[in-house]
Every structure is written in C-alpha cells, then in structure tokens.
Amino acid sequence: MMMKTKIVSIVVICHLMFVNLVNARTPVYLDANQPIEKRIENALSLMTLEEKVAMCHAQSKFSSPGVPRLGIPEIWMTDGPHGIREEVFWDQWDGAKWTNDSCTAFPALTCLAASFNPEISSLYGKSIGEEARYRNKGVLLGPGVNIYRTPLNGRNFEYMGEDPYLSSRMVVPYVMAVQQNGVAACVKHFALNNQEKDRMGINVEVSDRALYEIYLPAFKAAVQEAKAWSIMGAYNQLRGQHCCHNDLLLNKILKNDWQFDGAVISDWGGVHNTEQSVYNGLDLEMGTSTDGLTTDGTSPYSEYYLANPYLQGLKSGKYSEKELNQKVTRLLRLIFRTTMSANRPYGKYVSPEHSEAARKIAEQGIVLLKNDKQTLPIPVGKYQRIAVIGDNAVRSLVVGGGSSSLKVAYEVSPLEGLKAKYGAETITFSKGYSADLDHRKPESKTIADSLLTAAVETARNADAVIFIGGLNKNWFQDSEGDDRQTMALPYNQDKVISVLISMNKNLTVILCSGNAVEMSWLSQVPALVQAWYLGSEAGNAIANIVSGEVNPSGKLPFSFPKKLTDNAAYSFGATSYPGDGKKQEYKEDILVGYRWFDTKKIAPQFAFGYGLSYTTFEYGKISADKKEYTAADVVKVSFTIKNTGKTDGAEIAQVYVSQPKASVLRPAKELKAFKKVNLKAGETQTVELELKVKDFAFYNDKTQTWEVEPGEFILCNAASSANVKSKVSVIVK
Prior knowledge:
The structure is a single chain. This protein is of the alpha/beta class and 733 residues long. It is built from 19 helices and 27 strands. The strands form six sheets. The chain has a six-stranded mixed sheet. Strands 10-15-14-13-11-12 form a six-stranded mixed sheet, with helices on both faces. Helix 2 (36-46) packs across helix 12, helix 5 runs parallel beside helix 6 (164-179) and helix 5 runs antiparallel to helix 13.
C-alpha cells in the first residue's frame, strides 16, 4: 500500500513539474490572459517574412492563412448580412453540399432600418452573431451601410436607407452585438459604393461636404462607437484611387482621424495594384482575379498583389517591413479578438430563439403605406374566401441576389403563412404572373395571359384579394452585379393589379422588395403594404400583420419618388447617374433622399419616415428645456403622443432640425433624433429626446472642419419628413 502511494506521489510530482515547464515556456502570444497588444508584439517577433506576407492575402475563397508553425489559426469569413452563407468549395463559389450548413434567414437590412428600433438591431446582431460563431466563423461580412442614393441600385436591399443619422443609430447596436459573440463585424462597403452598374471601376467625384455629411457617418459610428473589428473596402474608385487601397479613405480618415485599430479587408476582386496596396491602408487581400461574384476557376493565391509580388519587393528592398508589420499587427489583433479569444461563447444555430427574432424583426419593419376604408386588418373569420395572387406569394426570396443568397433551414412563404393563419380552406391561390417567363417570346405571352385569366376568376369569386408581388433577386432587380433598368414593377404586374381591382375592390397589395417602385395603380388600390425581404419567417410575419395580430409600426427608411426623374441623382442626367462607365459626379451633393424632396419642394410618393398604423396618434407641441445653447450643450426636447384609437400600437416619433439662415446651403431639415413609443389604446406618453448641438454642424470643405454657426435653429417633431407636427426655435450662441 505504501509503495503504491509513493508511486502515485511521484507521478503527481512529475506531472506538476511538466506542467510548470510547459507554462514557463508558453509563448506570450498563446497566453490568453496577457494583454492583446503584448501578445501581438510577441507573435510578430517570432514570425518569418514569408509567414507575415502569407497572412496578408487569401488562401481560399473565404479564408486567409494563419501561421501553423506557431499555432496561429486561419481567418475564416462568411457572407452575409442577413444569414450565414452555405459552405463552398475551397476555390469555387459553388456550394459544397454539406448537410449541416443551412441557416436562419433574417430580414434584409432595409427591413431592420424600417423598424427605427436600435433594440431590435441589437437582437439582430446577437442572433446572427450566434449563428456565425456556431459555424466557427471569425468574420461576418456585414452589415452594409452604403447610402440609398438612387432607387435603381441593385444592392439597396442590403443597406440601411438614405439617412446617415438613421443608419448610424442602427448600425452601432448590430455591430456591438455581433462582436459579443467573438465574431468580427466587417462593415461594408467603404465607401461610396452606391450603385452596382460599373461598380468595379467607376470613379466617384463627390464634394468633401457630401462625403462627410452623408456617406461617412454610419461608418464613423461603427468604428468609433461600436468599435468594429474590421472594415471592407469598396469596388469603386474615389478621386482616382480604388477604395480598397485609397489613401484618403483608409489612411487619413479611417486609421488616422478615426483611430480605427481593426483590419481593412478588400472586397472580393477589389485590389488592383501592389504598391498602392502596400501603402494605402489595405491589410488583407481577398478574391483577386475574380469579380467577387460570377468568376469561377482556380485563383493563383501566390500571385495576389500582396503575395509573391509583395514578398519579392520586400526582399529586394523596394518595400520596408514597416507597412508589413502594421498589416500583420492588425490581422493578429483580429485573430486574438476572435478565434484566439478565451472568452468566446459557443453560439447557437437555427434555434427557436432565432426564429422568434427573425419574426419580430420582420413584424417591426413592415410598413403600412395605405389603408383606405379600414381594408386592413382582416381578422381571422371575417371572410370565407380570401384570394392570394402573385408569384412572390410562393417564390423563395432568400435565394439569389448575389453574395447575400442563402441556404436556409426553412422558409415560410407568404402563402404558407396566410394558410396557417386563416385555414387552408379559406385561401385560394393563383399565380397571376410568373417571374420565370421570358416575355420576349410569343409562347410566354400566351402563358402570361392564361395566368392573368386564372387570377381574375380567383379574384372574382373571393371576398377579399391579397396581391403579393414586387421585385425579387433576379438579375436587374434586387441583385448584386448590376442595377435595375427601370423603377417600374417587372413581369407585367401593373396590368395584373389594374385588372384585379376592376374585378374586386377589396384588394390589398403587398410588395416584397428592397427598393421603391412606381405605382400607376395607387389611387385605385385601397390598401398597400411594404413587406421587404423578410427571411425565414416571412409568411408568419405577413400573416400576423394582415390579420391584425400585430399592429404595423415600421416607417420608410428611404423616400419613394413618384417617378424616376424625381430622384436627385437621376435628375442631373447620366454624368450624375450612372456615369459614363469611367466617371460620375454626385451633382446633388448633400441633397440626398428627403433632403432633396424637402429642399426642392418635390412631393414624393411616400416620404422618408412615413408609415401608418391600425390606430391613430396625436402629437403634442414640442418644447425645449432652454432657449439658448452653446455648441457644447445638449438640447432636451419633449412632447406628448397619445394613442387616440382603440388598438394598442407603436409610433416612431422623429425630431428634425433646420437652420433658416446659414452661410452655406442647408437642407430644409435633417433627422437628429427618433424613438419608438409603445402606447396602449387611449394612453398618452411624454417623449423625451436629447440632441447634441454639435450635431447641428455642417462640414466646411474650405476649412476641413465641422462648424456650428451661431443663430436660430428650428426643431420640429414629426411623423415623417413630410408630416411636421410642431416647431420650437432655439438659439445657438
């Protein structure tokens, strides 16, 4: 017995000696308890020149090398902003046909922005971050915060609308919540990637004022407030340099002025030059020799601009190691914050919680645009026969569209959601139109006519008709790679809607899209809903809104023009949009979206911030806590909102600021605060909001500074940019 005890003791002592020996030799970079900057310094000192260069470029479609010799892992990335992309082959865009990589599809970011609810944005980031973490991704390639400049941009559905303040407030909680999962948000596309047409090379000329006031604020908020760990460069050029290696954007603004300490990642195929990539702020080169979307085939990773060409330049003395060490430092920081973090949670995937989150986001973002004669809601049991018409009632709207295309675990279509809500025996369906027809062919016209005839008969015999149309993810619609060619509805939908209304006046039109569309039939249709792309829970969310189980509360995050020529960018002709293929000028300058409509007194079809409810709200007069302020002060405003209807609901109160007399052109008004207020039927609440006087500033492109001019400013509370309720005047000294 004593001998056995001695043997055990010796074994324990030897084990402890071994552990102490290992711990004593553990490099600092492997010790998660050490400060990150110390770990970076140690790892960098141990790496060879070849290992450093290898970290700066891709090794596969969605990964870059680590340092196997030192146990530093690869960086694995994933599209996209609405769900975690399926696994693809090492060097192909095709899906690898795994059986465990189906995801939850969350609503597109236009829908999130329409919620005007930062708390919902945080829920979105938490949920998608958990899915990315579960799939062991280090970087989520999103969210996108490029500004909605024209309704023809094919990727508008991926972004957060036309207003820099709204997108700034919505991006911060999204990024913070994603990164709480140990996954880096990669905010994109930095910057001025406001169209898909000619995106790979179009050179944007824009004033400094428009750049700083309109196109940069959301990125700045993501960097300085949310502390984003990575940024993706854009395809286009700014002032003659591609944005993925642009000295002004990446060095001066991002890394110097904003003190960004994360990694700059190129868009796939966005790098064009070794020397500019070395010196102009790029850290990680991805996708070179592809256009980021359509090109397949083996990519020569060793010949990327930041691969062998860079290595040979370093060895020959053309480049110093200073810039290389800066790049690797940022990439190591990214790794230590994500895959080598000791505090990284495990995540979860396609969970009931994520389904609930997707549905909540969808419900809060759906916008009721018109509701004459209380056509909506349609309570369960009100009608015996409800006709559902439209291709988008049954089409998958999570597939296609470019890099945001998803392989989902499930998707509830609008038709399925309505059948589940009202009962299959109540719902009759007819397609009405088909997005799969080539309307240039004679036989397609015959099929289209037969679809319309069948839809008319279905509508004629129904108590109520719900038309579900809009756009989809096909080419030249809401899709990466090119822009829409017209603002009109495709597939002859205008004719279908007009014929349906002649057959049945009890018609609701539901549009699924990420863009505004022209509406020649609007005056005839009693009810209109903007439903966006809603993801896995689309059908359930739509059914809950239509039935009245959920009261709609979304507001438009961008203006709907009546016609394309009313849009600011388009109104200046081809030199402004889309350019001549090589260059374009942002001639509307700071007057983007509602700033243009309000300042030029052009009536939009539907204004920014507009959205109806099944109840009604009454606004009290706005007041400020003082009359006079300095530029360092905070203005506290308050007003009441009363729910004057019989239904519980939520209203998004908005506060705009204008400067009547200024030394420069100022927009008629600009959004500077908002709040989503939940009100019981008959309830009154006092809304209190704070506005920083420094946010009243304009960017002086002559002095390169932000300036708040002394004088009068008008603050107004509003239900939309076109529906001001009251005003208060304050003085800035």
